[in-house]
Amino acid sequence: MTFQPQIIAGNWKMNLTVSQGLVFVDRLLAVLKGRELSRKLILAPNFTSLQPLATACRGSVIEIAAQNCSEHEAGAFTGETSIAMLKDAGAAYVLIGHSERRHIFGESDALLAAKLKVVITEGLVPILCVGETLEQRLQGDAVTVVTRQLTEALAGFSGSQLLVAYEPVWAIGTGETATPDDARQMHAEIRKFLRAEFTWGDEVPILYGGSAKPGNAAELLAQPEVNGLLVGGAALDPESFLQIAEV
Ligand code: PEP
Question: Ligand 1 centroid vs 90 CA: distance in angstroms?
Fold first, then answer.
């Protein structure tokens, strides 16, 4: 299924300060002025940049996502950031279960399910990230792993809006990209899961992430069920981010 518009989301991870982020957005908005862009843009800066970027992007084609959130609504959780805070700062989306959260910070599917619950309560739109490791792929377990991640994180999910990002762990920040065929096959599996799970499963945008760049974006975006891209490294430069958005 083809969604209009496709979505190009940039995950800045722990890069770009507030002032660097504002320079990026100024540049992007200046180039986009007066241009028709057929794709929707999302930027995911770190927490400190959410509010200034949301303010700078208000009324433009760029929406803002947070990279993470607490599973708690409020309280004595030093260092954590609640969904209500993200929403108040101007975020419309939040990444849940990015592979760096899963693999560096040990976030489990059960924790992600708890995070999804508070996201829904507060009315932000989650971007649930799933993906297998290289070892799991080589063992032929990629589809089983991704299906299990979806099943466990979405257990009891009662929201009506969701994005899924398929990000094979071995392709993130490595320069290795899934072949268009790998992406097509996994996106078809994810769509099958979403259709079986939700009456609105057909409407869920499924993004591909993993070393997407200007040189491979068009081919990836041409695959059925690839409804957009989640971009890390190539989203740190406004020119390459724009090139991807305009391929
Ligand atoms: C990401 O961080 O979600 C990502 C896909 O990174 P990169 O594009 O650098 O592989």
Answer: 23
Q: Give the CA distances from residue 192 to residues 117, 152, 187, 205, in Å, rounded to whole numbers and listed in that order.
A: 23, 16, 9, 13
In a domain, 172, yes or no: yes
Number of domains in the chain: 1
Q: Domain span at residue 220?
A: 7-30+39-245
Q: What are phi and psi of 23, to 5 degrees?
A: -65, -45
Spatial contact of 48 and 22, defined as CB atoms under 8 Å apart: no
**Could you read off the pLDDT of 130-148 as tens digits, one per residue?**
999 999 999 999 999 999 9
In a domain, 61, yes or no: yes
> Which atom of ligand 1 is least distant from the CA of 209?
5
Q: How far is the CA of 26 from the centre of ligand 1 (A)?
A: 23
Check if 167 is active-site. yes
